[in-house]
Each structure stands twice: as structure tokens, then as C-alpha cells.
């Protein structure tokens, strides 16, 4: 393929993406095909001769798109957002085309430098403590990881190394998190060979200091060595916030590493009105949130900061490296480029406007639910509303099944305080008040069948 053919191919692909995003409102949210579908439409062997690129784009539309779940649909309310924006897409195209792989300062100093710069911008945007900045006078700093789950694993590996160097290599380590935390925390514990204790939460789904203190004292009495706590700001199920003001001092007193996972909710801290939700963040040894969840940067882009990077360097840095490898891979893509594009095109106020609009839409949906006596609202937090059909869980499950089968909207179940609830999240940047109303009418139409039965 020569340059002219590439121009035509790239332009057609960009036009296709633009048309897809413009028309996504008209598509059924869920995949409309069954397993095995792709094998029926593609040959068993690769093509012997090259094909024209036009036929490839036609097959994307004919074969691929019907089998996709449309995560950016304004009617997708099933999970915390997978972010997207036109600047992010352009940044993704450029970083692929420039083919830059960040290793150290010598070959790609601008790649490393831009990542450090945009992570500082991001930390300031979120009102994080200044000791997290790459430009801080202390040993703090940040970089981009693949996902929040990677960040959790990295925090556990660092805390394990730090604690065993302070105690004994054969110490029996234990880490703590809430029963509401993401399942990736338990997975990270397996990979880091560290026992994870899931601690009970209060009536709001938050981990409290008294619960953590009791668990730490019990484990020390049993001969275990507490090494880390993974606290969550915005849990996956109900967007609950662990109490860092209570947890932080306990971690400090016992020399326990405190990692804060704010994968979804962290984006909200760009708005001053939500800063009380992260009181106590100054106690965190590491902090992570995903711009690819709610800040318009397409995946993958997960930001992680350290109060003191020297602990990470002891685990991950190589002697031959000219920069920081506070991560598992030896190299990383130029993901800072798409973050840079989004921050510059939207600006601080544009991002705040985006967050506030989605929170307002969730409040609008909450009002619709509360206005119908057949439903009850169980929890509301930022862009998430948890609700259910009054009565037995079977009514709520039947509603979920009916809505899922129709594929006009998509929601997800969750058990909160021993009750089955429906999680309705404002996910898409395309969602407007009319889309929320469409979703509510769909839910009402199916619950009417539910109650009639």
C-alpha cells in the first residue's frame, strides 16, 4: 500500500467511525448475533492474495459491527463508562501512526516528558496533593498504566517488597480491602502471593476505620503481617466511598501501604463540589483513576501516582534504564498523546461540564424512579442510580431479563444489602435527557408485563 492508498483508506476509516458514532443512537445496544456467527461468515483459511481495502470496510459494517455491544450508545447503562471522544480517537490514530514506544529518555525523550507533564496536569485537575507531582520537590510522581487492576497489582508488589525488607522475607503477609471492592483486588492478591481479607462495610457500602483496625489487630495477634490496604473511592457496584480520613491514620500507624482505587469516580474530583468525597487522600501512598472511564479518553489510559517513587524503583527499575519503570511491561505506548489531546480540546471547564451534565442526568432518572410507586431507589452516587421493583427479587430479575432480551437498553444487576438491584449508569457522552426518558419508558413497559404476570 502506497501513501496515496493509505490516505484514501485512512480517510474512509475515519469517515466510517464518524458516521458510526453519529448513528449509534439508532442501533440496538447489545450484539444481535449468537456464538459461532463469525465462523459462518469468514473462511477457514487466510486469503492467498491481498484484498482491496474497500472490501474490508464493507465487511466491518456487514460482519463485525452486528456482533458488537455498542458501549458508547446513549442507551447503554450497564457499567461504568468506557470513555470516548473525537480528540481521543485522533490521539489514538496518531500514536499508532507515529509508532512510538516509550522505553527511556535516550530514544524518545518527548514521549517520556509529555507523559510526565500531562500526569502533572491531571493531578492538578483532580486537586491531588502536590507531593504526587512529577515536578514536586519530593520523591513523588506518576505515569500511565494499562488499567486500574494493573495499578492494584503494582501497589501490592511494592508493599510486599517494602514490608518484607522491614520485617522478614518469610513473613506471612495480609492485605485488606472492602467486600465491595472490584474483583481485580483479589486477583492481584493471587499474583502478588498476598492474602486478601475482604472486610465488611457500613450501611452505605463504605469501609470504616474501626473495621480495619479490628482486622489488623486480629491478624497481628495471629502472627500475620499487615502490608497494604486497597481503599476504593467509587466502588463498582454502588459507587461507595471508603472513609480515607479514618483509614489513612491507621495505615500510617501500622506502617501499611495505602493504595486508593478511584477508577471511575476519580474523574469527578475535577469538580470542587465533589472533593469532600476524597478527604484523607493525603494519606495515600499510591492513587489511581482511569481517564478511560469517565474523562473522555478512550481505553487504555489509567493514571497512577506515588507519594514516594523510590519504593517502586526498588521493585521495577533496571540498572540499564534511563527513566522510570514503575510498571510491569518494559515499554509503554505513547498514551500521553491522546490524554494531551483531550485535555487541550476540552479544557478544565469542558471536562467539568461533561461530568456535571452526567450527574444531572442521573438525578433526572432518580426523579423518574421515585415518581413511580412500583419502584424503590436503593442508592444514588454521582452518575449511578441503583433501584429495584418493590417486592420479591424475582420481580426485579424478571425485569432485567425482559429488558436484556429486547436489547433496546442495557442495564446490569447487583446485590446490595441482600437485595437484587438494577444499576443504571449514565455512560455515554451522547446521552441526553430524551435518551434517559426513552430508557425509563422501556423499563416501565417491561415492568408492567412483570406485574401483570
UniProtKB/TrEMBL annotation:
Write down any Gene Ontology CC term.
cytoplasm
Transmembrane segments in this chain: where?
A: none
- Keyword check for Lyase, yes or no: yes
The coenzyme or cofactor needed here is: pyridoxal 5'-phosphate
Q: Which domain of life is it from?
A: Eukaryota
Q: Which residues carry this modification: N6-(pyridoxal phosphate)lysine?
A: 293
Q: Which GO terms describe its molecular function?
A: aromatic-L-amino-acid decarboxylase activity; pyridoxal phosphate binding
Protein family (similarity comment): Belongs to the group II decarboxylase family.
Its protein name is Dopa decarboxylase
**Organism whose genome encodes this protein:** Zophobas morio
Amino acid at each position: 500500500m502506497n501513501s496515496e492508498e493509505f490516505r484514501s483508506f485512512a480517510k474512509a476509516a475515519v469517515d466510517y467511525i464518524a458516521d458510526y458514532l453519529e448513528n449509534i443512537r439508532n442501533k440496538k445496544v447489545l450484539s444481535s448475533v449468537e456464538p459461532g456467527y463469525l465462523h459462518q461468515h469468514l473462511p477457514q483459511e487466510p486469503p492467498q492474495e491481498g484484498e482491496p481495502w474497500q472490501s474490508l470496510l464493507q465487511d466491518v459494517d456487514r460482519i463485525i459491527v452486528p456482533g458488537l455491544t455498542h458501549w458508547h450508545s446513549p442507551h447503554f447503562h450497564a457499567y461504568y463508562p468506557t470513555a470516548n471522544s473525537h480528540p481521543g480517537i485522533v490521539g489514538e490514530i496518531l500514536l499508532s501512526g507515529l509508532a512510538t514506544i516509550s522505553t527511556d529518555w535516550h530514544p524518545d525523550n518527548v514521549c517520556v516528558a509529555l507523559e510526565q507533564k500531562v500526569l502533572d496536569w491531571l493531578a492538578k485537575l483532580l486537586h491531588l496533593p502536590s507531593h504526587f507531582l512529577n515536578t514536586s520537590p519530593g520523591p513523588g510522581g506518576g505515569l500511565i498504566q494499562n488499567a486500574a487492576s494493573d495499578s492494584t497489582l503494582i501497589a501490592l508488589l511494592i508493599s510486599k517488597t517494602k514490608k518484607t525488607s522491614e520485617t522478614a522475607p518469610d513473613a506471612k503477609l495480609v492485605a485488606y480491602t472492602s467486600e465491595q471492592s472490584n474483583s481485580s483486588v483479589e486477583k492481584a492478591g493471587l499474583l502478588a502471593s498476598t492474602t486478601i481479607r475482604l472486610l465488611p462495610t457500613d450501611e452505605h457500602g463504605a469501609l470504616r476505620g474501626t473495621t480495619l483496625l479490628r482486622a489488623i489487630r486480629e491478624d497481628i495477634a495471629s502472627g500475620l503481617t499487615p502490608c497494604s490496604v486497597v481503599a476504593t473511592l467509587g466502588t463498582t457496584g454502588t459507587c461507595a466511598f471508603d472513609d480515607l480520613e479514618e483509614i489513612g491514620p491507621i495505615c500510617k500507624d501500622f506502617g501499611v501501604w495505602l493504595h486508593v482505587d478511584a477508577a471511575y469516580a476519580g474523574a469527578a474530583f475535577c469538580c470542587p463540589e465533589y472533593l469532600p468525597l476524597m478527604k484523607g487522600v493525603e494519606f495515600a501512598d499510591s492513587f489511581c483513576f482511569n481517564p478511560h472511564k469517565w474523562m473522555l479518553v478512550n481505553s487504555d489510559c489509567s493514571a497512577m501516582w506515588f507519594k514516594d517513587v523510590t519504593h517502586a524503583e526498588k521493585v521495577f527499575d533496571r540498572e540499564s534504564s534511563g527513566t522510570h519503570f514503575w510498571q510491569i511491561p518494559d515499554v509503554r505506548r505513547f498514551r500521553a498523546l491522546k490524554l494531551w489531546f483531550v485535555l487541550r480540546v476540552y479544557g478544565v471547564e469542558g471536562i467539568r461540564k461533561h461530568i456535571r451534565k452526567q450527574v444531572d442526568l442521573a438525578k433526572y432518572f432518580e426523579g423518574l424512579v421515585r415518581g413511580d410507586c412500583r419502584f424503590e431507589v436503593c442508592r444514588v452516587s454521582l452518575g449511578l442510580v441503583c433501584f429495584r421493583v418493590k417486592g420479591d427479587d424475582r420481580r426485579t430479575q424478571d425485569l432485567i431479563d425482559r429488558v436484556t432480551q429486547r436489547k433496546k437498553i442495557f442495564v446490569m444487576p447487583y446485590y446490595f444489602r441482600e437485595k437484587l438491584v438494577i444499576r443504571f449508569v449514565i455512560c455515554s457522552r451522547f446521552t441526553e435527557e430524551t435518551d434517559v426518558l426513552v430508557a425509563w419508558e422501556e423499563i416501565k413497559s417491561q415492568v408492567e408485563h412483570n406485574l401483570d404476570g
